[in-house]
Design goal:
Oligomer: heterodimer
Shape of chain A: globular
Order of helices and strands of chain A: HHEEHHHHHHHHHHHH
Helix content of chain A: over 70%
Radius of gyration of chain A: 25 Å
CATH superfamily of the largest domain in chain B: MetI-like
CATH superfamily of the largest domain in chain A: MetI-like
CATH topology of the largest domain in chain B: MetI-like fold
Shape of chain B: globular
Number of strands of chain B: 0
């Protein structure tokens, strides 16, 4: 890949005597510089988009090779499938259970840190700690905590006379347990984003409010939270999209179970396409297209609102 | 533009120390402060406990880990879990795989993003809006939605279960280009004019002036890309098959899936996998913050 720009470089370095030749050289150089990225995008984003649509409109044999054109059949099948409705519901619930506590929790934390207390720096770093955890490392650690027999959670619960809970094996708790893990691992990121937002609120505004006697909750409600509005919005959209794409924690903790109670859209795509030797690429692709549309809708909301804000500014 | 304008130095530390003009000492205030401290204590416990326990547990023996009541402090530090984890899976090899893959992806994205961002900022372009739209569009496509064709493509090319398969799709990114474009645009235009007068062409200007002057943004991007590559899960899970080609993240999972999943080994493996990312988060925090919010400024 890097050979392209190298080859093109001399053209940019030695400007031709005539302005026109020079302009042409710069245009060529621009394309040479863009080429590596464009090739990667074309091969691994553009083409796969088309192929996903193609696969979703074809039935396939046992090995996943497309066999015959079926049009929208996979999509109409999804619409009438009770399982798929459950998957969508689980996805929505999971998103709700991760985004709302994740954003609100981080907001409360950064607001608490605004109350000039000792060791703010240390605390802020402590809250950012989960950011160092990958999805896999956080998930295996929580899997150890959640272990029904030897896990520390049930151990502590039994200390107060409560008793053992099947965190990941009971379909009433599994989704909440996976969501809690997700909230924990995203907290570091959320705190960093909101701290950055608070850091960029002009000091004079806060000072003025303080001189007027505002403090604590009043200050938070009237100044800090409204000023954080754009950051909160950004964080909510990013968390939602991120949550919709969650895969590792589900794969590690529950494999979609028990009773499909943690089977989200992404997990369902994985299951159809890759799990247990399944290669049902046609149906999996139809679900992947649904995922694509949902995420695009969220992104569209973000851009729509941002656009308006830019106009106001 | 309306969102956080990223000025690294301001965001790096806590908010500047503000003088506290009229600190009231009424009972109400004291109560308020007590509540704040209490809430913070609970929050710290909740957030830090899993980190603490993962590390403490990694040093506990099997009997301690499943003892009742649960042991919270290891009585005698044992390194057995770490050696056990290294014996149970090809951990060293997988560590090396992850390091190699993440490094290659980071270097490649740096180069492709620097070039593309430079083209957007400093070079004339006919269809700038269209090309820009293409880069923008790549940010909106969730990787999970196109993972099936990518798996098929790379398998067809014979790159299943290879390093090429692990890195090829991630050699460029719209995000990196945007972040650097944002940063490059802040260079004063006179710099380019001055360089031109001095006879420096684009290639020279790029590597001698633009790159050195944008080190913070490049550092932020490197950290961000390295972390995401190191933490990848879905793609390495499906594109690799053998234990020797697995990345560390997938290897960790196999510690949990093995017949007699030993919690000590799992925690030790997790702690080992944390070392590089923890170092990046601790030492690179001010860069990370800059990178995190870059997506907000388009």
């Amino acid at each position: 890949m890097p050979t392209a720009p190298h080859a093109a470089a001399p053209r940019g370095r030695t400007p031709s005597p005539r302005q026109r030749g020079r302009r042409w050289g710069e245009h060529g150089l621009a394309w040479a510089f863009l080429l590596p990225s464009l090739v990667v995008f074309a091969l691994f984003i553009g083409y796969p988009l088309g192929r996903t649509l193609y696969l979703s409109a074809h039935a396939n044999d046992l090995f996943g090779a497309p066999s015959k054109y079926v049009g929208l059949k996979h999509y109409t099948d999804l619409l009438s499938s009770a399982d798929f409705a459950d998957t969508l519901l689980t996805t929505a619930l999971f998103t709700l259970l991760t985004v709302v506590p994740g954003v609100l929790g981080a907001l409360v934390l950064v607001l608490l840190l605004e109350n000039r207390i000792r060791g703010v720096r240390l605390l802020r770093s402590a809250f950012a700690l989960p950011f160092a955890f990958s999805v896999a490392s956080a998930s295996v650690v929580f899997a150890v905590f959640y272990n029904p027999a030897s896990g520390v959670l049930n151990g502590l619960l039994s200390q107060v006379g409560l008793g053992p809970i099947g965190w990941l094996t009971d379909s009433r708790y599994a989704l909440v347990s996976v969501a809690a893990t997700t909230v924990w691992m995203n907290l570091g990121y959320n705190v960093l984003v909101l701290s950055a937002g608070i850091g960029s609120i002009p000091t004079e505004i806060v000072e003025a409010a303080r001189l007027d006697g505002a403090s604590g909750l009043r200050l938070a409600r009237s100044i800090t939270v409204p000023m954080l509005g754009p950051n909160l919005f950004f964080l909510t959209v990013v968390s939602t999209v991120h949550s919709l794409q969650s895969f590792g924690q589900i794969h590690i903790l529950t494999k979609g179970g028990p009773d499909s109670s943690t089977k989200t859209l992404v997990y369902s795509v994985y299951e159809k396409a890759f799990a247990y030797g399944s290669s049902d690429f046609g149906r999996a692709s139809a679900q992947a297209v649904v995922l694509l549309l949902v995420v695009l809708a969220c992104t569209a909301v973000q851009f729509g609102v941002l656009e308006r804000k830019v106009h106001y500014a | 533009m309306s969102l956080t304008t990223t000025e690294a130095p301001e965001q790096a530390g806590p908010a500047p120390v503000r003088p506290r003009p009229f600190a009231g000492r009424s009972p109400r205030d004291l109560l308020g402060r007590a509540v704040v401290y209490l809430l913070l204590a609970v929050a710290v416990l909740t957030v830090v406990f899993p980190v603490y326990y993962a590390i403490a547990g990694a040093f506990m023996g099997p009997s301690e880990l499943s003892s009742y009541p649960p042991a919270l402090v290891p009585h005698s530090l044992t390194g057995r879990n770490f050696t056990g984890a290294v014996d149970a899976i090809p951990l060293v090899r997988q560590y090396a795989n992850s390091a190699l893959v993440a490094t290659v992806i980071t270097l490649a994205q740096l180069v492709t993003s620097i070039l593309a961002a430079y083209a957007f900022v400093f070079l004339p372009m006919k269809a700038r809006a269209v090309v820009f739209g293409v880069f923008l569009a790549t940010l909106m496509v969730p990787w999970e939605a196109i993972i099936i064709p990518n798996y098929l493509t790379l398998s067809d090319w014979g790159f299943g279960n290879t390093y090429f398969g692990l890195v090829l799709p991630f050699l460029a990114s719209g995000f990196g280009t945007f972040m650097l474009r944002q940063s490059f645009r802040q260079l004063p235009g006179e710099l380019r004019d001055a360089a031109r007068i001095d006879g420096a062409g684009h290639w020279r200007f790029l590597w001698r002036v633009v790159v050195p002057l944008n080190k913070p943004a490049l550092a932020a991007l490197s950290i961000y890309v390295f972390l995401s590559a190191w933490n990848q899960y879905f793609w390495p899970l499906i594109i690799t098959r053998t234990a020797e080609m697995r990345t560390l993240q997938i290897g960790l999972t196999s510690l949990r899936d093995s017949e007699m999943a030993d919690p000590g080994l799992i925690l030790a493996g997790a702690v080992l996998s944390l070392l590089p990312t923890l170092a990046l988060v601790v030492f690179g925090q001010r860069f990370i913050v800059r990178g995190l919010t870059a997506g907000a400024v388009r």
